[in-house]
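SEQUENCE-TO-STRUCTURE ENTRY
===========================
What this section holds: a protein sequence and its matching fold, both as plain text.
Question of interest: how does this chain fold, as expressed in C-alpha cells?
***
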Amino acid sequence: MLRDRGLVIFILYAFSIDIVLAAKGFQLIPQNISIAVMDESHSPESRELISMLQGPAFRRPVMVESRRALDRMIEDSEVVLSVLIPSDFQKSLYREGASVQVLVDGTQSSASYLSSTYFASVVERFSEALRPKVRASLSQRGFAPLKAQKGDVFSILGSLRGKAPQSFTKNAIEPFTPEQNSEHSGIFRKMLLEEDNIPKGLSPPGSFQTRTRILFNPEPRDDIYEGLVEFFMVITLLGMIVPASVLIREREYGTIEQIMLSPLGMGRLIFFKVLASSALLLSMITMTYELVLQGWLGFPVRATLPEFLLVSATYLLSMLGLAFLIASVAKRFSQIGMLAIVIFAPMILLSGGWVP
C-alpha cells in the first residue's frame, strides 16, 4: 500500500489540506465586509445602529459626509455596502417606523448576498433592543402598555384617557392582575379575535415566533460545521477506497495467485491487508484530530481521542463491506474511484452533509 505514491499523497491531502480548505473556504457568515456609512441623523439611535456594525462580519465603518462620496465608493467597489441614515431617522423610529437606504455592490455576488442578509439580521437586533425605549416614549406621551392575557400573542397599547386601544406591538406575554382581568379582559379578547383590528404586517392570535438554539455550536461558526462534515466524508470515502485499492493492487501484482498456492491462505491475506489499511486510516484520523482540528483550526472538540477512535473503528468496519463490494466488481485500479463515487454520491445526498 505504501508503494503506491499517488495513493499516499491523496490520503495525506484528504486528511489535512482538504479539511482546512473546507473549513476556511466556505463562509456562510461574512468576514471583514467593507462598509461605508453616511449619518445625516447624528442621533443616539443612529450611533447605536452604527456601533452594531462590527467585526468579525464587518470592518470598521467608513464615515462619509456627502451622498456623492457614498455613491462613488460603491460605484468604484471600494466598499461592499453603503448605508444612508436619513435626517429624520430618530423621529420616524417613534412614529410610523424608520427606514435606511442600503446599497450593495453586486459585482461581488457572494459577498453581497451574505452581507446584505447579515445586515438585515443586525437591523432586527437593533429593533429588538430599541423596543423598550419606544414603549417608554409612548408612555410619556400618554400611551400606557397594558398587559395581555396569558396565552394571547399581542400586548395592546391603550390610551390613558380610556379610549379604545389604538396600536399593537409584539411583546413579552405577562398575565393580567385580577383587577385588570375584570376591567379589560373582555375588551381585549374581543379585539384580538377580530382580525380586522389587527394591523397589517402582524400575525393573527395563535401565531408564535420560533427561535433556534444550537447546542453544540452556539456561536454559530460555519467553519466548524464545514470542517467536521468534510472530515467525516473523507473517512467515509477513504474507508471504501483504501481497502479496495489494496486488494486490487495485490491482484494486479499477481500476489493473490501466489498466496493461493501457499499455506498462508486467502482469508489470512485479506485479514492482514484489511488490518494494515485500517491501522493506516486510524493513524491518519488521529493526526487529523490532534494536529488539524484542534491544533490548526482550533475546533472545540469535546470528545476524547480514545472515544473518537473507537467510534471511527466501528464505522470503518462497516465501510469494509462496501470496500469488498467495490473490489469484487472492479477489474483495475482506475475503476475503484468511479465505483466509489457511485456509492458515495447517494450517501452524502441522503445523510444531510450537503443538503437538508
